[in-house]
Structures are given as structure tokens and as C-alpha cells.
Amino acid sequence: MVLVRQLVRDFALPVRIVAVPTVREPDGLAVSSRNIYLDPSQRAVAPSIHRSLDAGANGFTAGVTDPAELEATVRHLLEGTPGVAIDYVAVVEDTTLRRPDRAISGNVLAVAVKLGSIRLIDNVVLGAERL
User: Fold this and answer.
1) What is the pLDDT of residues 22-45, one digit of tens each?
2) CB atoms within 10 A of CB 1
3) Domains by residue range for the chain, with CATH
4) CB-based contact 95:112 (threshold 8 Å)
5) Which of 1, 28, 92, 108 shows the smallest number of beta carbons within 10 Å?
């Protein structure tokens, strides 16, 4: 989203960008065309991606503002999930993608993982109401 917004500004495009919540499967997995490539065992563990992000977001809600601590919570849960290879776990500012010194509402907690050869990404906005 950050890159698209920057392109719109750079090229003075007459476009309004509206961010919407991620559409999710009933078990929490973000809807993606890549999901069809997951085998049954990979699909069974894929919802752990969002659960780990929720745990990090819950930490923020409980008062944790150290990005490294929030990332460690997510990383710890993902590392305990069979078949998951972590590409990155990061707290970033929503407008610059830079890592803040302290997490604040509106920052994004993002992950990219691989399940086999399938790369999946997901994120939550810190301080946002979650279902």
C-alpha cells in the first residue's frame, strides 16, 4: 500500500486509495490465490500465521511497545509451527515502512513465511479492533 500511494503521488494520478481490512477465511487465514497451492497439511497449519500476529497485537494492547519484543512473540510462535520457514517478522510505520523506536497504534505488524514453496504474507494493524 505504501508503494502504491507513493506511485500515485509521484505520477500525480487522479486516484483515491481506500484501505480495507484483510478478507479472511473462517479460520483466520488471509484470502489469497496462493492458498490453493497449499497441500492439506500446509493448509492445516496456515492459520497459525494469523494467530501469531494476533498474539503480537495482543501484546501491544497489553502495553508492550518495544518492536523487538512484539516481533519476538510472533517469531517464537511461528518457529514452533511445523513446516513454517520465516522470511521476516517486522513492526513498521504504515507510511514509511521504517521500524519505529516504539510501536504506536497504526503501526503494522507484518510477516512473510514459506510453507513448502508457497510464500504467504499477512499483517495486522496495531491498536486496530480485531475480530
Assistant:
1) 999 999 999 999 999 999 999 999
2) 12
3) 23-125 (3.30.1300.10)
4) no
5) 1
